[in-house]
Amino acid sequence: MRNTPHNLVGAMVRRAAIGVCLACGAVVGVGGVLAQAGQPAPQEQRIANVVVFLVDTLRADHLKCYDYFRDTSPNVDAFAAEGVLFERAFAHSSWTRTSVASLFTSLHPASHSCQDEPDSMSDKLVTMAEVFKANGYLTGGFSSNISISEKFNCQQGFDFFHYFEREPFFKANPGRKDPGYVPIEGMIPDTLKWIDAAGDKPFFLYFHCTDPHYQYIPPDEYALWSKNNPFNSYDGEIRYMDAFFGKFISHLRDKGKLDSTLIIFTADHGEEWGDHGGASHGYTLYNEVLHVPLIFRHPKFKPLRRPELVRQIDVLPTLIELCGLKAADATIQGRTLAPLLAGQPDPQPDQQFIQADLLYPAKMEGYSYECDGWKAVYTIRNKPMSQRIRPKENTLEVFYTRQDAAERINIQVIDPARGNALLEVLNNRRAAFAQQLKIEALKGQIDPETLQKLKSLGYAQ
Ligand SMILES: [Zn+2]
Questions:
Q1: Is the peptide bond before 5 cis (omega within 30 degrees of 0)?
Q2: C-alpha of residue 343 to centroid of ligand 1, in Å
Q3: 8 A C-beta contact, residue 446 and residue 118
Q4: Do 302 and 391 belong together in one domain?
Q5: 8 Å CB contact between 126 and 330
Q6: How far away, in angstroms, is 210 Cα from ligand 1 center?
Q7: Is 224 a member of any domain?
Q8: Across the chain, what does the average pLDDT equal?
Q9: What pLDDT, on a 0 to 100 scale, did the predictor assign at position 27?
Q10: Same domain, residue pair 212 and 224
């Protein structure tokens, strides 16, 4: 039976009563994951290495393989044609650090608490890189976004972590306009060198490029759509990122590592282009900023498109199962996607829900919850990015996304009972996540240099 808000609440109460699941069924215990691990894969299908390739600010529906009308992504499309593409993958927040913390830990924001601009990831969190490192992998992290750097304790578990400072790149490329971060072409050479230096040792790589984040300044040869229009330039930056993603894949193929490496292509959040009257991200929790690409490629999986709702927190438990990792000290709130990757029916349809937080007082404080085609967005208070948008306070909006994917018709106006039931589920789930585990983020002052880098990305205004 698929869950409606009412039977979800009932299921939560029943589970609490018998003391089974700590987070209302959201938890896949690591022990359970390991117990389900299948027989060793044939040698040619063995996953030796893992790459998580994350593109900042890339909304899924601006990729051709997600049915975009422009040819923004020929290399990602070719990659997707050989992989398993999740059509409905969602982030747990609409800004970088909260979202990436969930990806790294398989924890909801209510549990990892990394929510506001100065928040750093606690040392108590068990991260994806720490899990791989503890299992004998070489671990490398490369980021051009200051939000994902040592400044915010994101290097945990990486043998080698590198945040790309802008100055060396732009000194070496004096003709290039500075978008506020090192563009992807400045990241790829060091990343490939690190992969090559790994030799035959198994590695885990996290790659975080910031294109197509604001400012949108694609090099001329990738500005395929008319200039002086940020929407077009955003698409040009996607095309630019795509070209270097293609080079990255080609290098792995040339080195004979492509088919022994599981590559996951994804994003941390999307970008609004007037969908709800605004722009940018981190101001709302509508799906244009939460719907992200999620594509897995490895020869052991036949090319597929999966329609199920999946989440960032599902990536880590999937890797734990696929790679047979031991992760006894990790608390896992996602579920393994291995059955879906293998083309099987979804054994856990009750896990097809997404709960997102945005507790960023300078922009918005609120939550969202989507399950079974119904989506609730609860705004505690917000400061819209445009004066044309009316601020909200204690406002509940409800959308039937199955028929209103653009979230235009607020059902709450005509069916408040449904909205109130959804809000009750949302609140119960958040409380259950926090009850299972709550690790406070590290709070501190942002130093002036880091503040300047955040401002160049449009944060910390
Ligand atoms: Zn981001």
A1: no
A2: 31
A3: yes
A4: no
A5: yes
A6: 7
A7: yes
A8: 90
A9: 36
A10: yes
